[in-house]
Amino acid sequence: MKRALITGVTGQDGSYLAELLLDKDYRVYGLVRRSSTVNFERIAHIQDRIEILSGDLLDQNSLLYALREAQPQEVYNLAAQSFVQTSWTQPVLTGDVTALGVTRMLEAVRAFNPEARFYQASSSEMYGKVQAVPQNEDTPFYPRSPYGVAKLYGHWATVNYRESYGMFTASGILFNHESPRRGLEFVTRKVTDGVARIKLGLQRELRLGNLGAQRDWGYAGDYVRAMWLMLQQDAPDDYVVATGHTYSVRDLVDSAFRRVGFDWQEHVLQDPRFMRPAEVDLLVGDAAKARTELGWTPEVEFEELVGMMVDADLARLRGHPLPPPALFG
After folding, report:
1. Tens digits of residue pLDDT in 275-285
2. Among 139, 118, 114, CA closest to 129
3. What is the CATH number of the domain that holds 230?
4. 102-160 tens-digit pLDDT
5. Is residue 288 assigned to a domain?
């Protein structure tokens, strides 16, 4: 039985990845940071099948302990301060966790179990002020937020350990990927939760920032499959994971309101408080390499994804949460 260690297991991606690995008969260990607000909601339905370990990307010794306990063949580093907006108000913490935390994890793997295969969650935010459209593995990076800068550090650290020590380290440059498990602070979930609340009469308006920003939005359940595939290859490499289709925040809003039969223009207000100091206007990925080398393709389309999220928020707010979807067979 293969053993895998997932940092960030209680997050959106961590929960879907844990489901996938359990479905493939892995023994799954999840690294969880101790805090007063630990939330196991996303993994509640599988928590009894995951072995939870206490650790923190800020604490090198805790990472060594987790590796010793788990003895993993595969390590998936998904933990991060992962909200772009927060990185502007907490840039030092973002750098310490999202950038240096990767080095701490890589160094722990190198010291304790250098044969383990390592996956790093890189981000399309590294492209920032895009230098080419669409973006692929050869597109120059130009991050436009402390989060993007931190992710770029972690990305290059992963490449450096691969080239310097011969370790199997792979990075997935994932474009925006969403689900009903997305945090409420992210614009997609803010929209679908807001639409559900308006539909149920719990609020009247939805305040948003830049409606013109365009993103390549996919489904998190599809994207974790790409993570796993990267660590099954003969040699490590970096891969863009994206749908190749772009939609604006306005498109997202329109789709979500149409799901409940409402006109978004009657409920949405633009609010300058939600504008970024430096905006990333257009991200769209070219995942040709992932399709060719990994055999990966996304399965959930944009409209289906938005509908899934709106439906889940309606069910949650009505007090009848939907059961988790059967994702992997």
Report:
1. 666 556 688 99
2. 139
3. 3.40.50.720
4. 999 999 999 999 999 999 999 999 999 999 999 999 999 999 999 999 999 999 999 99
5. no
In three-state secondary structure terms, 52 is strand
Q: What is the dihedral of CA 86, 267, 12, 15, to 10 degrees?
A: 150
Whether 161 sits among the annotated catalytic residues: the reply is no
Q: 16, 147, 161, 239: which one is catalytic?
A: 147
Whole-number pLDDT of residue 272: 73
> Do 111 and 161 fall into the same domain?
yes
Asked if 168 and 117 count as a contact pair (C-beta separation under 8 A), the reply is yes
pLDDT digits 0-9 by tens, 119-132: 999 999 999 999 99
Given the residues 15, 82, 123, 179, the one annotated as active site: 123
> Is 147 assigned a catalytic role?
yes
In a domain, 290, yes or no: no
Read off the tokens for 328: 């992997």
Residue 277 and residue 156 share a domain: no
pLDDT tens figures, 35-57: 646 689 999 999 999 999 999 99
Active site residue 125: yes
Token digits of residue 215: 């993103």
Q: Of the listed 62, 74, 87, 125, which one is catalytic?
A: 125
- Tally of structural domains, the chain: 2
Per the structure, the complete domain to which residue 195 belongs is given by 183-215+246-283+300-317
Residues 67 and 144 in one domain: yes
